[in-house]
User: Fold this.
Amino acid sequence: MKENGIVLIFNGEITNFIELKDELKNKVNFSTKSDTEVILKLYKLYGKNFIKKLKGFFSIIILDKKKNLIIVARDFLGSKPLYYLENENFLAFCSEIRPLIKMNLTKFEIRKDLINEYIVFGYIAGEDKLIKNVREFPISTIMEINLKNFKKTKRKYWDPVNKFENIDKEQYALEKFEDILERIIKQWSRTDTRLGVFQSGGIDSSIIAANLKRKFVSLNAVFPKDTELSEDKNIDYLKKKFNLNISKININESIDYKDLINLSKIADEPFHDANSHVFLKMCSFAKSKNIKTIITGDGGDEIFGGYQRYKSVAKRFDKLKNPEIIILALNYLSIQRLKKICRNFSLDLSERIKIFNSIKSKYSINKCLEMDQLTYLNPWLHRIDRISMANGIEVRSPFLDSEMINFANNLHPDLKIKNNIHKYLLRKYLNKITSSEFATSRKIALRSPDVRSFYSGNLKNIYKKILNKKSFISTIYDIEGVLELLKKHSFKNDNSNTLWRLLSFEAWYQSW
Assistant:
């Protein structure tokens, strides 16, 4: 969009744009109904402080020809990707990495020093990426570039880290949660297109479905060949309780070589989680039903304490003391197992330690959650964005609204994990609107059936096809040792994360 020497490039959605238009109606005239125009008008009124008004998910670039300025901004936790390349001749930005390579702005060269970090954690923390010279623009950051002298000024405009942690009264917290929830569900579900909800049968997506005030379709993944993954009981309950229109998506075929390569071509970096295959199938199904906007419950675990690891690490927090040990304890992968197959193992945790030390929470559980918000969520959201957009679908995650995160991060940890009950506050709310049995039911994670039986079938053959002595990964890891991990994998000796990430990396590398 252009207006009076100002050029705006915008990717995403401003969820509070209607409220902002109402706020500005006596100050400016609008010629469109779009949220893009709202950003432009805000910039003209408030300059770079326009960013403080926005809610939603976005990457924004503004060229102000009159002031000789470029403004670059990215959303709160990284729902919308933004990468950049910089040298003495140019500075380039893009929402994807592949166009930067195709335009010959840089060569496709892998940073071997970062591969261990990807295999251990599933992603690279900070701005550095697996491809040399490519960097990721940081979350919740705005940068001003002076085109006269090319001086760059960068600052954080929002910090998810809690300030007080003083909400400890359960009833007050419930009322506050309901108030915020009603507001953000209304804002994040605005669309002129057909709306869907990825309905897992778990707490987060159930809360969203129960509070949507408009027509939508619930989409639920089912695994006919793997009854242990079934959530039919919960889904049937929700259908009757809230009169939901539920479409079931059968995930019964194994991922094949073509699927794996296609998935890899979508990715800017290798996907760290095998359920990417399931998510791709779900998005493809939604596309076939002409559903253009999907609401999910993503973020609920990371802000309200859904993962088991939070309590186990927090329990040992004071004893662990060393940030490196705490960071590794928050991760499931065995470092010792990886050292046995790596030719020259090294792991730089400096960026993660820097982030960890910036979190000033006085409670160990909150510190663990905030570490995930600042590191783990970004690549998870990247996966969601790339797969959904490849299918022409916009995915929205209301729990990642900045107001909801601020609220959750100021909760006392007992309202997150209490008496071995994870997501305590959300379960209390769910108990209020459903039943105690449903509110306390165990959530089954969305994952591919291939991973549960891990590589016993089709994927085992793909694994041997992709990972061999000619593979790029063989320059870092001993392939015989990798195949031995595959051979020894079992439920008692779980090598799944290591095996998947090695496969995912090599498939991604071969897709270029």
Q: What stands out?
A: DSSP finds 24 helices and 16 strands in the chain.
